[in-house]
Design goal:
The chain has nine helices and two strands; from the N terminus they run H-H-H-H-H-H-E-H-H-E-H. Strands 1-2 form a two-stranded antiparallel sheet. It has one domain: EF-hand (Recoverin, domain 1), CATH 1.10.238.10. It has 201 residues and is an all-alpha fold. The C terminus is likely disordered.
Length: 201
């Protein structure tokens, strides 16, 4: 079937998650659902506000309850105040297939960082990101993706491997997203100018 005729939900079904990505996604989901022991029984297998608060605090942030509720609301399709495994998977597929830069990414950025941070220590190194980045972007784009996260220098001045925190990671990712959005807007304006030139010819 022509992809142009598919609905957004049908298109999502065509998005494939590689086995290594799914393994990391499952590990992170299990980690994030296990933080708030006071959750109602019916929501024990979901990510709730209490879980997110504890994870973000561990990563060095001081989130407001309203901020955490917004993170959940962005992906909470059934509006029960929690993120189910299905909503979690859908969120990931939406973000990795998004070509517009408009998909909400607050939860995605957190999940992505934790996918890199295999031992949940709160910091990630270049080496820890290589597997996921290679699987998703391929060898030809690997270096540019590493630079986007860690900068030009992959090691510290003393030769040790550079590590970044979640806060530093989000800052770099957001700056990159803003730059890409500005480039898309610039390209769109150029396209509009070109069309105007043709119509006025």
């Amino acid at each position: 079937m022509d992809k142009l005729k598919l609905s957004p939900w049908e298109l999502l079904k065509t998005v494939k998650i590689k086995p290594i990505e799914q393994e990391c996604l499952d590990r992170v989901f299990d980690y994030m659902t296990d933080k708030d022991k006071s959750k109602p029984e019916e929501h024990r297998s979901k990510i709730g506000p209490g879980d997110l608060i504890k994870v973000l605090q561990f990563l060095g942030l001081k989130p407001l309850k309203s901020e955490v509720n917004l993170i959940i609301w962005e992906v909470d399709d059934d509006l029960d105040g929690y993120v189910s495994k299905e909503e979690y998977q859908t969120m990931y597929k939406r973000c990795i297939s998004d070509q517009t830069g408009l998909e909400p990414r607050k939860l995605f950025n957190l999940v992505q960082f934790l996918m890199y941070d295999k031992t949940f220590k709160g910091r990630v190194t270049v080496e820890e990101t290589l597997q996921i980045l290679f699987v998703r972007y391929g060898r030809e784009n690997l270096d540019s993706e590493i630079t986007a996260i860690f900068g030009v220098d992959e090691k510290n001045e003393d030769g040790s491997e550079k590590e970044i925190t979640f806060g530093e990671y989000v800052d770099k990712i957001n700056k990159r997203a803003l730059k890409e959005h500005q480039e898309r807007m610039k390209a769109r304006r150029k396209g509009e100018v070109a069309r105007d030139d043709v119509s006025n010819a």
